[in-house]
Amino acid sequence: MKAWATVLAALTLVLTGAGATPAVAAAPQAEACQKGWGSITKAAPGSLAMAASLTDVRAGQHTCYDRMVLDLPGMTTADPAGYWVQYVPGFNHPPSQTGIPVAGGAIIEIEFTAPVDDSRYHVRLADPLPGLDFRGYRTFRDAKFGGHYDGATHIGLGVRATLPFRVTVLPDRLVVDVAHTW
């Protein structure tokens, strides 16, 4: 009788799944990278009378792209800074056309209609942007300050190659994402 009880208990475990090895979860899918960003100029007229000023520039790495964030406190999505973001053959200080060397296989010029808040963000013409270290980044290589001229601030972003990018306006921020691949 004891043997039948053991067999019955084992059969019950098998039929109810109790004590069974749990199913292995499917491996997580890699993040699907965005397509269709392109490499042509991205621009929006925005406000020429921005109350906001650039207070910081930050960068981060994501699965599919590197990201640069320009902090513009007071900017809204309803009244953003005007911007022009485009690949350029060389990066220059606008009034003098003096070349500013930017490392990388390609250069993106980021121009936006907001001044630099010198009391919070200290940067000089042709200097690397403070606080940015692109070691280990897949796409970003360098970032230089091109000055503020005729109502617009200019930044040169050196990237590995001509790659797709997008520009996003968020409250208090202008964001530039550059894809790792096509």
TrEMBL record:
Residues 53-180 form the AMIN-like domain. It comes from Streptomyces griseorubiginosus. Residues 1-25 form the signal peptide. Keywords: Signal. Pfam families: AMIN-like. This is AMIN-like domain-containing protein.
